[in-house]
């Protein structure tokens, strides 16, 4: 006579898990919270290490329409999370990072002197080239490649691909 | 040192409790959908789009909806599944 347990006998010992509606609701809410938290963390990581900025590349970012920036005027904008300025010079549009290369203050356009001016230590930059005219800044303002098309000005990338990595994270993040 | 222990007792029963449970589950799915939309938009939107006022307003609106939905789920959970009175004991 065969005394070994039959397959149907072993199935009797199956584990039964009961879950209450309350517990199910708690689990679902926990999953949503986890999803939200992971999304927030992913967004923070993307902000801290923007892929385009880290490689010195960027997709096109519209700065302004041509009409918004008539000759002799400027517009501040953010590029790769860094302060930048678009200038409409007689020779055409120019765009530079606005973070002073001295100590990271934000430089701005000073029309009466035709310069980009850093108010912290009186650094002066050429609005056409970004070169240092006078003051303590050790290097020119970083230039941004731009393109004018369909009546608007777009920022493309930093001319120096290592620029964003070379400055501190908080510099110019206004 | 004492530990406060809250005993919620057994689940509520009845028709309205079931309605609350089903609504809570549906709203949870809605919350997951809204959360996914927000996260997707923030992470994958083009920078030129993500820097517009419209985009920021859209995200703000979605977060407001999400807050409302989460509050509704909490309300349904408390009123639909917990007992009206619960016991607090100190150990």
Using brief descriptors, characterize the structure shown.
heterodimer; A: 174 residues; alpha+beta; Rieske Iron-sulfur Protein; 2 domains; 3-stranded antiparallel beta sheet; B: mainly alpha; two-stranded antiparallel sheet; 2 strands
State the major sheet of chain B: 2 strands, antiparallel
- Percentage of residues in strands of chain B: 5-15%
Distance between the termini of chain B: 9 Å
Rough outline of chain A: elongated
Radius of gyration of chain B: 19 Å
Following the backbone from N to C, one meets helices and strands of chain B in this order, namely EHHHE
Quaternary organization: heterodimer
How far the N terminus sits from the C terminus of chain A, by CA atoms, comes to: 86 Å
When the domains of chain B are counted, the total is: 1
Which percent range fits the helix content of chain B? Answer: 55-70%
Could you name the ranges of chain B where pLDDT drops below 50 across 5 or more consecutive residues?
A: none
Q: What do the pLDDT scores of chain A average to?
A: 81
Largest sheet strand order of chain B: 1-2
From the 3D structure, determine the CATH topology of the largest domain in chain A: Rieske Iron-sulfur Protein
CATH class of the largest domain in chain A: Mainly Beta
């Amino acid at each position: 006579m065969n005394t070994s347990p039959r397959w149907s006998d072993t199935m009797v010992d199956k584990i039964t898990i009961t879950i209450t509606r309350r517990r199910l609701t708690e689990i679902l809410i926990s999953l949503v919270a986890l999803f939200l938290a992971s999304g927030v963390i992913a967004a923070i990581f993307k902000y801290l290490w923007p892929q385009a900025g880290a490689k010195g590349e960027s997709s096109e970012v519209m700065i302004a329409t041509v009409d918004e920036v008539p000759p002799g005027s400027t517009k501040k904008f953010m590029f790769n999370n860094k302060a930048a300025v678009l200038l409409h010079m007689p020779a055409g549009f120019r765009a530079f990072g606005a973070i002073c290369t001295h100590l990271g203050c934000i430089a701005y356009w000073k029309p009466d002197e035709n310069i980009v001016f850093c108010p912290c230590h009186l650094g002066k930059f050429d609005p056409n080239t970004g070169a240092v005219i006078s003051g303590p800044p050790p290097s020119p303002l970083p230039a941004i490649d731009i393109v004018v098309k369909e009546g608007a000005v777009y920022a493309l990338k930093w001319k120096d691909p290592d620029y964003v990595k070379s400055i501190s994270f908080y510099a110019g993040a206004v | 040192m004492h530990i406060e222990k809250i005993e919620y007792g057994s689940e509520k029963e009845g028709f309205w409790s079931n309605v609350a449970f089903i609504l809570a589950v549906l709203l949870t799915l809605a919350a997951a959908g809204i959360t996914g939309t927000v996260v997707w938009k923030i992470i994958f939107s083009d920078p030129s789009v993500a820097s517009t006022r419209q985009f920021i307003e859209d995200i703000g609106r979605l977060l407001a909806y999400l807050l409302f939905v989460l509050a509704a789920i909490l309300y349904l959970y408390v009123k639909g599944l917990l007992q009206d009175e619960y016991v607090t004991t100190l150990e």
